[in-house]
Design brief:
The structure holds 2 protein chains of 2 kinds. By secondary structure, chain A is of the alpha/beta class. Chain A has helices spanning about 40-45, 70-80, 95-105, 110-125, 140-155, 170-190, 225, 230-240; strands at about 1-10, 15-25, 30, 55-60, 60-65, 80-85, 160-165, 190-195, 210-215, 215-220. In chain A, the strands form 2 sheets. A 6-stranded mixed sheet of chain A has the order 6-7-8-3-9-10, with helices on both faces. In chain A, strands 2-1-4-5 form a 4-stranded antiparallel sheet, covered by helices on one side. Helix content of chain B is about 85%, strand content about 0%. The chains are: A alpha/beta, B mainly alpha.
Chain lengths: ~240, ~280
């Protein structure tokens, strides 16, 4: 589904070094690390938003050279992956519904009426109910995250990347978001790659946890395996539960 | 940073190119990079403009209407007021210069001709730059820092299509239309100056305006307005899209957009005038 091989980047001033990563369909992989450890940069490299020094990325069978990818080639590959950025990144000048419709309309997956129906359905699935002309900035932060999730799922991608999806939400809203996300994953079976600094996610249903520190994956395994790790960063991260 | 140090090392080792320092090299690279970046935005936006003409009922067309209201209709009062003042200023200046020759009444001739070919398009372009170039660059820069530009790219969509092409389409309609209106308002200002303040006859003024104006003058002005629209749209969009993610970057991008748009408009106007002067058969 997703294979990242020997990724070092960005070009010129690398922050990430020798990253290898795999996510299978239906699997949940959590990349956890302190703030500024390179998580967002890694996600940007995976979707080709940054040029790497070296490395390859394979998404759903389509492979690109992270150091020399062409935008046209990337555009095609990006339709196979749903991305949710930190802070939602909804387009503020168009309505909530138009945000979700956009990928459907522009990739020719639906006509305008059908796209509207699908968008409404997706919003219901993620637990948001809105008027047709409601703008993103009129929603609270938790609902904006849910709309961003609906938009990421619009093309029914086999792989979903989420960068700090619940940062800045209160505990109740964050847990509710997680419940919705994992329920959708169980239903649709997409691969999930989650980038977070929140230890809570390590105690969720992740199949594999990769600990990122100073641009390198310093430990990898299941939660139980990592809890026994001697690596100081791993220890600091995973034994923080209840104190954050 | 790395480019500077690398270039410096290269010069020290080879000992060649003694007059070009690493800092100069960096500046040349930055200017070159800016032209390449503008070129990319220009090619992309012109491609999507052509697409927009062929697909008028698309997601983007709603954006064009919105931008037209903001960039064009929103500038109407400013252009009207400023153009009347320009007409008044022109009348007073020309009358003053022509007074020693007893030819103050001839000022209308120059007002009509000069406003349509030169002052109208330039005044409108400068007003639109002042009012909208910083807004366009600032808006795109804010969208970049909020992740909206990346979100579009991550969906496999071209940000130029959704964010730049509608603005450029709106400018390509709004600036020529505002230029024609400005020509009218400058003439109105000239009429107010000539009749109310200088005491000339309205009929004489209108006859002189009519005799001094040809359709080719208006066409030249509109042609310049189209050129200025392209410069303003592309430069402001490029500055906005290439913003860095740091405090103050949005304001700097907006300021740079205004400066480069102003310089671009004046340079393009100079070039057009020089071409018409040195190759008169190209002039209408």
């Amino acid at each position: 589904m997703l294979v990242v091989h020997d990724l070092t980047g960005p070009a010129g001033a690398p922050l990430l070094f020798d990253i290898d990563l795999c996510v299978a369909r239906g699997e949940t992989v959590l990349v956890i690390g302190p703030i500024q450890s390179g998580k967002s940069m890694l996600m940007r490299h995976i979707v080709g938003l940054e040029r790497a020094e070296r490395g390859t990325v394979t998404i759903d069978g389509g492979c690109f050279d992270a150091a020399d990818a062409h935008e046209a080639e990337l555009r095609q590959l990006r339709t196979r992956v749903g991305v949710m950025f930190e802070g939602s990144a909804l387009l503020r000048r168009i309505s909530v519904l138009a945000n979700v419709e956009l990928p459907l309309l522009e990739h020719g997956r639906a006509g305008s009426r059908e796209a509207r129906d699908v968008a409404r359905e997706l919003l219901v699935e993620v637990g948001v109910s809105v008027e047709d002309h409601l703008m993103p900035m009129q929603l609270d932060r938790a609902s904006q995250r849910r709309v961003a999730l609906a938009r990421a799922l619009a093309l029914r991608p086999p792989l979903l990347l989420l960068d700090e999806p619940t940062t800045g939400l209160d505990a109740v809203a964050a847990h509710a978001f997680d419940d919705t996300l994992y329920a959708l994953q169980r239903r649709d079976g997409f691969g999930l790659l989650l980038f977070s600094h929140e230890v809570r996610h390590a105690y969720g249903p992740a199949d594999e946890i990769d600990v990122l520190a100073d641009g390198r994956i310093v430990a990898r395994g299941t939660r139980d395996a990592l809890l026994g790790s001697d690596e100081p960063v791993v220890h600091q991260l995973l034994h923080r539960r209840g104190r954050e | 940073m790395s480019l500077h140090s690398d270039s410096g090392a290269l010069y020290r080792v080879t000992g060649t190119h003694p007059r070009v320092t690493a800092a100069d090299h960096g500046a040349i690279t930055r200017v070159g990079g800016r032209f390449v970046s503008r070129g990319r935005v220009a090619v992309g936006s012109l491609y999507w403009l052509a697409w927009l003409v062929a697909s008028p009922r698309s997601v983007v067309s709603g954006g064009v209407a919105r931008e037209m209201e903001s960039l064009g209709i929103g500038a109407l009062r400013l252009v009207a007021g400023a153009s009347i003042l320009v007409g008044l200023i022109g009348t007073f200046q020309l009358a003053y210069q022509l007074q020693p020759y007893g030819a103050e009444s001839m000022s209308a001739l120059a007002i009509g001709w000069f406003s349509t070919r030169e002052v109208g398009p330039v005044v409108v372009a400068l007003l639109v730059v002042t009012r909208s170039a910083s807004a366009v660059a600032g808006e795109l820069a804010a969208m970049g820092t909020n992740g909206e530009v990346d979100a579009l790219r991550a969906m496999g969509l071209d940000p130029v299509k959704y964010l730049v092409a509608p603005k450029l389409a709106a400018l390509l309609v709004a600036i020529p239309a505002l230029t024609i209106l400005a020509d009218g308002f400058i003439t109105l200002g000239g009429w107010i100056g000539s009749t109310v303040f200088l005491g000339f006859n309205s009929r004489v003024y209108l006859d002189q305006i009519r005799s001094s104006l040809a359709a080719s003058d208006i066409a030249t002005g509109v042609g310049k307005a189209v050129l200025f629209s392209l410069i303003i749209g592309i430069v402001a969009a490029d500055e906005g899209l290439n913003v860095e993610r740091r405090v103050g970057a949005i304001g700097e991008a907006a300021s740079r957009a205004v400066v480069y748009c102003l310089l671009g408009v004046l340079a393009a106007d100079t070039l057009v005038n020089a071409i018409f002067y040195f190759i008169p058969r190209l002039a209408f």
